[in-house]
Amino acid sequence: MKLTINEQVHELNAPDEMPILWALRDVLGMTGTKFGCGKSLCGACTVMLDGNPIRSCVTPVKAAENKSITTIEAISEQKTGQAIQNAWIENNVPQCGYCQSGQIVSATALLNANPQPNDEDINNAMSGNICRCGTYNRIRDAIKQAANKLEADHEG
Amino acid sequence: MKDKIANISRRNFVKGFALSGLVLAVGLPGLSTAAEAKQYGRDGMPHGWVDNPLVFVSIAEDGTVTIVAHRSEMGQGVRTSLPMVVADEMEADWAQVKVVQAYGDEEKFGNQDTDGSRSVRHFFMPMRNVGAAARMMLETAAAALWSVPVSEVKAMNHKVVHEASGRSVGFGELAQSASKLPVPERESLIYKDASDFRYIGKSDMKLADGEVIATGQTEYGMDIRLENMVYAVVAHPPAYGDTLASYDDKETLNVPGVIKTLTLPSSAPPAVFNPLGGVVVVAENTWAAIQGREKLKIEWKAGPNSDYESAAFREKMQTSANQKGGKVLRQLGDSYQVLEDAEATISADYYIPHLAQAPMEPPVATAYFKGDSCELWAPTQAPQASRDTVAKWLELKPEQVKVNVTLLGGGFGRKSKPDFLVEAALTSKALGGKPVKLVWTREDDIQHSYFHTVSYEHLQAAFDENGKTQAWLHRTVAPSIASTFDASSVHQMPIEIGMGVVNIPFSIPNIQLENPAAENHTRIGWFRSVSNIPHAFAVQSFISEMAHQQNRDHKALLLELIGDDREIDPRMLRDEWNYGESPEQYPLNTGRLRRVIEHVTETANWGKSLPEGQGQGLAAHYSFVTYVAAVVEVKVSDDGEVSVPKVDISVDCGPQVNPERIRSQVEGACIMGISLAMLGEISFKDGVAVQNNFDGYQVSRMNEAPAEINVHLMPANSYDDPLGGVGEPGMPPIAPALCNAIFAATKKRIRNLPIRYQLEA
Ligand code: FES
Ligand code: FES
User: Fold this and answer.
1) How far lies A26's CA from each of A12, B380, B567, in Å?
2) Fewest Cβ atoms closer than 10 Å to its Cβ: which of A70, B292, B506, B636?
3) Pair A96, A35: CB distance under 8 Å
4) Interior/surface letters A38-55, b for 16+ CB within 10 angstroms, e for the rest
5) HEC secondary structure over B417-466
6) Per-residue model confidence (pLDDT) at position B36
7) Residues in CB range of B366: below 8 A, 6 or more apart
């Protein structure tokens, strides 16, 4: 099977039902996407499939055929992704950091769809991503900071 | 600092300073005899501390300064906070510093047990010594280079300068010659003046690992990949103490990618850090192993805990908590008599269930057994205990086992217990020395934790006719962590009763503290802030109940109970532990407790009028030699939904080394405190944890986080003052402050955690 990940085509030797998460991590060695629950409950494994955030732990590779996967490793190639990453670094968002790949992918997808989210929009988009360390308030601030920065860049 | 977390062993470390095993100070508490004075703080920890710059610092000729982080990074920021102390004291430029992680070797690095909110508290001074010694060696080398007296040169931001001649030389150029100099005696070290600190105490420090985390390049235990590595998961016995009777793996072996199955030995109690036993499925990838495990047909032999049931156990605890007696922990005056005679009395019971730490990265370990040695890579909070335990199980010497410490995707106490490393090591050995990554799924993590204990707390108080509190009675019932090490233990240990039962600083004339027995039916372990969770919840809720009954302002009553500003010797409170710290250096200071209460109530505008359905709650708690008070504001909707608009937390942890990470730890503790209060519960049925993933065992999500968390740090007098803990003490006051706020908002008193649906009409 052929999988397009971060704009590169990979030849994958894996069963159709294998979740994208394990294909990325164990077969292709891309470990930026994390395993947290395996049941679509925590968001640690979030990647983009044709731009939409999905839980890669429950999405079989078959579903990604002829589609395009974007992972944390390439999120900086999107303007929003880079702005989100910068805001994360600027605000010292992470604690242990383990959830943050998923948080950053979800936040990037949010800003792609809604460049100026309010608190409720942020809660709705981000509540699928658990952070056991409790970095939620900083995530909120960082998303707003990235949104404002992108808007300022756009206007400027 | 773009590099992945790197282990010293994997890089050429000997660029500037030579690595040497020279150890300047090592405490050996294990060898101390009764005749010797008791050792406290860092001196009292296994293998004590090391402050040799040759162990912790190396300088490359290009000027890169490499600093060893010897404590495990699990989100508390220790890979930033301790190396930046070294960098600051040695005048290194943080931008040219690289942090490398130490492997497990306490003789070399000093104590590495990353728990008890101790890392910065114990290693601030040793790391200053490391930095000061390195700086002085560089200065001596520069002085020799220019043939000028060392008093005329000064290290400044990665250079040594000679002001008189305007010359300067970079650290990199000095590395070779400095490394040949003797390490200065500890007594001769000259420290920087605190006013010259560049990083210590500054609020704008960037995380050592911030960039690699944001770009997904970090290497957690879960991310280790070795050549020819296979993957494994374990089918663990369902109840603690169950053992394997037989199993059929026919269907398992038909799963594509599954290589084989094998068994792990189960261990007789006590649990210690031993593996639970079960069936291992080895596969070409994690997913195949998980699929294969689902296909196993296993017969388990029921053990002694297979009828553990939370509701029944709760009743048992309730009965003991409501009976006079049990081990007396402290007695002052005659509380029983006063309670009997008093005008007014009050009594309440509180229940706090088991909890699972549930770090975002489940336990995982990679092991490579090589016959007469074994190398492991794991997210462990206890590198040396990991090494010792693995060695014991492999029948090797600890020197034959190497434990590489990866980044931890959270720990919270779970990763202090190296049972999962033992499983990986035994599996690699059983595979004839193949490298194996053994992964715990979330289900394994939540069902086979070393759980936070389950507690039942009974409190009574008596008042005189003026409303003055005359008697206090607290019976605390909970299986003890001691049972993990001695299966027959039924009483709480000094470390548990010293977490808010005996060391309550209340000036009440009659105090009775008792601990009835409670047996364990599962593995009990540390969870961030440990027994402070139930004790603070009960005590701080009860004081709010007392205030309400007596028509008193909660804050006023709390301050009255605490009484005059004074320093209490913890031994006077029958607290023999005192978080391992010296009672002289760390007395319980009621003035500091009062100060955080006054500060937080003032900033939160305590007593302000709020609309219907909203309320403020207060709680204050002393733990890990740090003083914390919190005011939580809640909003409860008509259908009982709780939201938290604002939390204010005032913290006195003594001198602040990395205020930015202190704030982040307290913010995190606040969310975790709200999480356990609102949702946290592990309950048992037929010996098995009922919850098994984040659907059953829920934790707070962003929509449940407070809209605002304000952390206020109390200034300390000087960096010579004793440091307090940071990672844990933020948590205990949160649950009681939240429930006190709910009472203020709704007049409904929460005495059983979690809150969940209790407020629904
Ligand atoms: S690992 Fe996929 S949602 Fe948790
Ligand atoms: S930063 Fe640790 S789980 Fe989010």
Assistant:
1) 11, 22, 57
2) B506
3) no
4) bbbbbbbbbbbbeeebbb
5) CCHHHHHHHHHHHHCCCCCEEEECCHHHHHHCCCEECCEEEEEEEEECCC
6) 61
7) B221, B224, B226, B229, B376, B377, B378, B424, B435, B436, B437, B438
Which is nearest to B361 in space by CA: B432, B429, B412, B288?
B412
Domains of chain A: 2-74 (3.10.20.30), 75-155 (1.10.150.120)
pTM of the entire predicted model: 0.95
DSSP secondary structure of B633-687: EEEE-TT--EEEEEEEEEEE-SS-S-HHHHHHHHHHHHHHHHHHHHT--B-EETT
A135 CB within 6 A, ligand 2: yes
What's the CA gap between B734 and B631, in Å, rounded?
8
- For residue A41 and ligand 1, the question of a CB distance below 6 A is answered with yes
Q: What is the C-alpha separation between B47 and B21, in angstroms, rounded?
A: 14
> Are B75 and A35 in contact (CB < 8 Å)?
no
pLDDT tens, position by position, A36-75: 999 999 999 999 999 999 999 999 999 999 999 999 999 9
In CATH, the number for domain B6-214 is 3.30.365.10
| Euclidean distance between CA atoms A72 and A107, whole angstroms | 11
CB B257 within 8 A of CB B287: yes
* pLDDT, position B23: 30
CATH for the stretch B221-304+363-439? 3.30.365.10
What distances in angstroms separate CA B739 from CA B579, B617, B674, one per listed residue? 27, 7, 10
Question: Is A48:A113 a contact under the CB 8 Å cutoff?
Answer: no
pLDDT digits (tens, 9 = 90+) for B223-272: 999 999 999 999 999 999 999 999 999 999 999 999 999 999 999 999 99
The closest alpha carbon to B416, from B426, B429, B400, B405, belongs to: B405
Contact B484, B525 (CB under 8 A): yes
* Ranges assigned E (strand) in B62-174: 65-69, 97-101, 153-156, 159-162, 167-170
pLDDT, average across residues A16-21: 98
Token pair for residue B506? 């209340």
- CATH topology match: B6-214 vs B310-355+450-746: yes
What pLDDT, on the 0 to 100 scale, is given for residue B18?
A: 34
| Tokens 């206090």 sit on residue | B472
Evaluate whether the domain defined by B310-355+450-746 bears CATH number 3.30.450.180: no
CB B501 within 8 A of CB B537: no
Which of A25, A41, A100 to probe ligand 1 with, by most ligand atoms within 8 A of CB? A41
For ligand 2, whether the C-beta of B359 sits within 6 Å is: no
Mean pLDDT over residues B87-105, rounded? 98
- C-beta atoms of B216 and A94 within 8 A: no
Name the token pair of A92.
Answer: 């010292």
Q: Which two tokens stand for residue B748?
A: 């409904």
Residue with tokens 């977490």: B499
User: Residues B326, B516: contact at Cβ < 8 Å?
Assistant: yes
For all residues of chain B together, what is the average pLDDT?
94
CA B628 from centre of chain: 16
B99 near B73, Cβ under 8 Å?
A: no
The helix (run of H) or strand (run of E) holding residue B495 is: helix B494-497
Taking only Cα atoms into account, the Rg of chain B, rounded to an integer number of angstroms, comes to 27
The protein residue whose alpha carbon is closest to atom 4 in ligand 2 is: A131
Cα–Cα distance measured from residue B736 to residue B485, given in angstroms and rounded to the nearest whole number: 31
Give residue B650's Cα distance to chain centre: 20
Residue B34 has pLDDT above 90, yes or no: no
Q: Where are the domains of chain B?
A: 6-214, 221-304+363-439, 310-355+450-746
Candidates B222, B223, B230, B287: best to mutate against A (most CBs of A within 10 A) is B287
C-alpha distances out from residue B418 to B411, B441, B655, Å: 12, 16, 33
Q: At what angle do helices B383-394 and B419-430 cross, to 10 degrees?
A: 40
